[in-house]
Specification:
111 residues, alpha+beta, 4 helices, 4 strands, 39% helix, 18% strand
Length: 111
């Protein structure tokens, strides 16, 4: 359903699906990530943290895939923290192999 929005001029659509993970859609790609395991302590601020991680990564020149990973790491770190995540919690998850994402190329969809 999100691809309908991307097709109407929205450049990127970042969606949190809570326990079902997240996805990032662009005109020619979709990244998907499963949820980081465990029982969240609180989801308050997790969506805001997700957006902050995404924007931080883009602002320092990370690739779109790395920006998506940063978004998932920031949102997940906050959900598994008693408060907003710390830089150390974010960095530990972002640099670990605990997060995974899949890539789907959509260029053939538009040709």
């Amino acid at each position: 359903k999100g691809l309908e929005w991307v097709g109407k001029g929205i450049k990127y659509l970042l969606i949190s699906n809570g326990a079902d993970g997240a996805c990032l859609m662009g005109e020619s790609f979709v990244f998907r990530s499963g949820a980081y395991g465990g029982v969240p302590l609180s989801t308050v601020g997790a969506g805001d943290s997700m957006i902050a991680g995404f924007l931080w990564a883009l602002s320092v020149g990370k690739s779109m895939q790395e920006a998506f990973k940063a978004a998932v790491a920031a949102g997940s770190s906050t959900a598994f923290s008693p408060d907003l995540c710390t830089k150390a919690e974010f960095t530990n998850l972002f640099c670990s192999d605990a997060l995974f994402c899949t890539f789907e190329d959509l260029t053939s969809r538009y040709h």
